[in-house]
Amino acid sequence: MTAILGGGLGGLSTGYYLLKNNMNSNNNLKLFLLEATNYCGGWIKSIRTKDYVFEQGPRTIRPKGLTGLNTLNMMQDLGLSEHIAPIKSDHPAANIRMIYVRNNLHTLPSNLMSVFTKSQPFSKPLIYALFNDIKSPYKILPDDSIYNFVERRFGKEIADYAISPMICGICAGDAKEISVKFLMKTLFEYEQNHGGVIKGLFKSFLKPKSDTDLDLSELAKKAQEEKWNVYTIKGGLETFPDTLQNHLIENNVNVSLNTKVNEIEFVDSSSVVLKQANGETHTANHVYSSIPAYALANLVKKQHPRLAQTLSDIPFVTVGIVNLYFDKDEPLIQPAFGFLVPPIENSPILGVVFDSCCIPDQKGTVLTVMLGGKWYKEKFGENATEKMLLEVALKEIVKILDIKIDPTAYHVNILKQCIPQYVIGHYERVAKIREYIASNNLPISLVGCSYDGVGINDVIYSAKQQVEENPCLQG
Ligand SMILES: Cc1cc2nc3c(=O)[nH]c(=O)nc-3n(C[C@H](O)[C@H](O)[C@H](O)COP(=O)(O)OP(=O)(O)OC[C@H]3O[C@@H](n4cnc5c(N)ncnc54)[C@H](O)[C@@H]3O)c2cc1C
């Protein structure tokens, strides 16, 4: 028996890859998945009505790179190709991304030409950042914050107005704490090995490129040919975990909802018992844990306090999500992806996504305001109510977007400890956790957003890798 702990995208994808590998071998895979809530999909949740879709968690997926193409392969395999709504590179949601600085919205440069012209809030054309990199000294470091790295190589304005809001948008985090390896591992290696990013870039041109060995599906090829920027799923992203869950059930995976595990007992290298508070137990030869690291820490602390401590050292942040629908024929916003607010502005909001521009088949104007993240407690305290977050969101919408009418519908959600923060030293910490597991012969693999990347593509790819790394464990 093989167990999957957690039915978010990480757990569901693990099931998908275990089934796929099993089809290629002649193993008789017996697989079960335990999910604490009454729903599979984790943070992916969509509220669908005939007029609008409110996404309470993620809304767009990137099609690019190895991990992006891998997800598209999975989408096609699950029969989701027809449901995909791409945003191509010439769409406003692809090339108009704004930041809110000093009481104004500014469009960030999105093409090569705009790098040569000065645009607010930057005091010089962005090309100057490259000169900065060439002339600046470098520092040999094991890791650094992404803010420090970008400030050192490209200047403070790029760190404040480009990278800091981007980090807010990706993980609701503080660029001054997040590891440079989270987004810029290769650029950091260029600096460490060659003394600068541009120098490293030139040297890398001389090296032969290694091709990925991923076979591309028709859908992945189409995304490349049509230059998709991002995509979403018609009717809401929730269709994706729903389809994955059905795929698992159709293939005889036993999916148990409302099944919260509260302790894991490792018996030996091929036996593990998952225990519920009501005394029920589930025995497996191996468990793939996709629950957040802090939650797993609680389950293993009795037998492995040192492992539990390292797992709980991975910090998470809370995000407030306010979805708003305005039933007006004329759009209340300009076509764009939305805007982010750099932390230096000290605003109560992280940013606003213009959903009616990014998600198809929406009537009127649909917006999502994101609040808190790294600054949640500082801005809203321990006991913020949904009403409080709604009031803050509406006030900011009036101030920034000049929308003075009341929303026709809204939904507020406080997503507690929803996004892991890959702070300085994260990758070394994850290596240490996996070393501990290997040296103690624990029959557990770690998947999900706590370890190998926080986005949808990362979580799916990590599941694939973990299943490939433990092929003998099935059956
Ligand atoms: C607000 C927000 C916006 C985002 N936007 C994007 C985006 O636009 N694009 C993108 O690519 N990514 C985005 N992400 C990231 C993406 O949502 C995550 O990478 C992904 O959903 C994480 O999946 P997971 O399975 O690792 O974790 P989770 O979704 O947290 O799933 C873990 C599951 O484990 C269950 N569980 C926990 N403890 C137990 C237990 N003891 N016993 C049994 N079950 C348990 C939980 O109930 C849950 O279902 C966003 C995330 C958030 C929060």
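^ flavin-adenine dinucleotide complex. Residues 9-24 form the longest helix (16 residues). Residues 2-43+238-314+423-473 form a domain with the FAD/NAD(P)-binding domain fold (CATH 3.50.50.60).
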